[in-house]
Design brief:
This protein is α+β, with helices and mostly antiparallel strands. Helices cover 41% and strands 26% of the residues. The chain has helices at residues 4-11, 56-59, 83-97, 120-132, 143-150, 191-206, 212-222, 253-277, 280-289, 303-311, 324-334, 336-350; strands at residues 15-20, 24-29, 33-39, 42-45, 51-54, 69-72, 75-76, 79-80, 109-114, 137-142, 161-166, 171-177, 180-187, 208-209, 233-240, 246-252, 291-294, 315-317. Strands 3-2-1-9-10 form a 5-stranded mixed sheet, with helices on both faces. A 5-stranded mixed sheet has the order 13-12-11-17-18, sandwiched between helices. A 3-stranded antiparallel sheet has the order 5-4-6. The N and C termini lie close together (8 Å).
Length: 355
């Protein structure tokens, strides 16, 4: 139903692309680039259900809140697990992106990245949450497609290209040619599972209970997928399970590489499986073009070297890899007619239509 007020507000609203990630949410404004990059955390009062903080402020509360306040991530494995909380988070980020325009009720056109392996119900949940958060139009784009566009890969050309997008909840592997995905694989093993690997390793080997933030910091500081030129060490701090007292142990990058090996091996195997499904002509292109890594997981030390060794191809990390999906969604809005077919394919696959 046509809403004159919404249409009028739409004239003064921005077109925005959103990477609605399990770990971080990024917002790109058309012709402006990334304007928001914050953790996908929301702090709520368990008794009243009131939202107390969103983004960086909420993440700072993790593990430090009183009993009646809980900090949660409303997305798990790249999909919505808490619909109402996700809607409030989207509403917050949409309004924050429009803060300079002083609009109280923005009505933007929004393109949202989703994992390629989500179900019809999960697609509908993202679409409905985006509309409920204030979007006048909502479009979905599969994350590997958005990442490839954001990384500047020639996906519309006859030449083949490949992207491996490793986020917080999912790893997306795709081979592109002529504007479509020839091969796509979605795996719910990514950054979160790596953090859990480190937490489990500390508990099993050292009887040390560490938090998610400690595990993430360890992964980013000394985590690796391939032997480092110079191995590193750092202190793991937490609570000793046996004594119940605070404790600290020194661990090496060799130990953390061992802890991460299970998740890394699964991701490597998924890439090999995708290559096994790729037509020979495109394999020839990939041998020349190489494989592009995107997402926060692409920053794991030694991952390009490990994948290169396993696939016998050049592997490079995209510039500003963490923002590829959001930048890709923003580029779609900048050249909407060119990329309309990409969006149309996503909408048709998800049976979603504009309201």
């Amino acid at each position: 139903m046509f809403n004159p007020l919404s249409a009028l507000l739409g004239l003064f609203s921005l077109d925005i692309g959103i990477d609605l990630g399990t770990a971080n949410t990024l917002v790109a404004v058309r012709n402006r680039g990334i304007v928001i990059n914050e953790p996908s955390w929301v702090a709520i009062n368990k008794r009243t259900k009131q939202v107390l903080a969103i983004g960086s402020e909420a993440k700072d509360m993790v593990g430090r809140t009183p009993a009646d306040i809980v900090a949660i991530r409303p997305l798990r494995d790249g999909v919505i697990s808490e619909f109402d909380v996700t809607e409030k988070m989207l509403d917050y980020f949409i309004k924050k992106a429009h803060a300079s325009l002083l609009l109280q009720i923005p009505r933007p056109r929004v393109v949202v990245g989703i994992p390629s392996g989500v179900t019809e119900v999960e697609k509908r949940a993202v679409y409905d949450a985006t509309i409920s958060a204030g979007a006048r139009e909502a479009y979905l784009i599969e994350e590997p497609m958005a990442a490839a566009i954001g990384a500047g890969l020639p996906i519309t050309e006859a030449i083949g290209s490949m992207v491996v997008d490793i986020g917080g909840g999912t790893t997306e592997v795709a081979v592109f040619a002529l504007g479509g995905m020839v091969v796509r694989r979605s795996l719910r093993v990514a950054g979160d599972e790596m953090d859990e690997d480190i937490m489990n390793y500390a508990r099993q080997k050292y009887s040390l209970l560490i938090g998610e933030r400690m595990a993430e910091r360890t992964k980013m500081t000394i985590g690796s997928a391939y032997p480092l030129p110079e191995e590193k060490t750092m202190a793991l701090r937490g609570r000793n399970i046996i004594t119940g007292l605070p404790d600290s142990v020194e661990v090496s990058s060799i130990e953390i590489r061992e802890a991460l090996s299970n998740s890394v091996n699964i991701i490597v195997e998924e890439v090999r499986n995708a290559l096994d499904e790729t037509p020979p002509e495109l394999i020839a292109d990939l041998m020349e073009q190489g494989i592009t890594l995107a997402g926060g997981g692409a920053l794991l030390q030694g991952l390009p070297e490990r994948l290169s060794e396993e696939t016998r191809m050049d592997v490079q990390v995209a510039d500003d890899s963490m923002t590829c999906v959001a930048r890709g969604a923003g580029k779609v809005l900048e050249d909407f007619d060119t990329y309309r077919r990409v969006l149309a394919l996503t909408q048709r696959n998800g049976r979603i239509r504009r309201r």
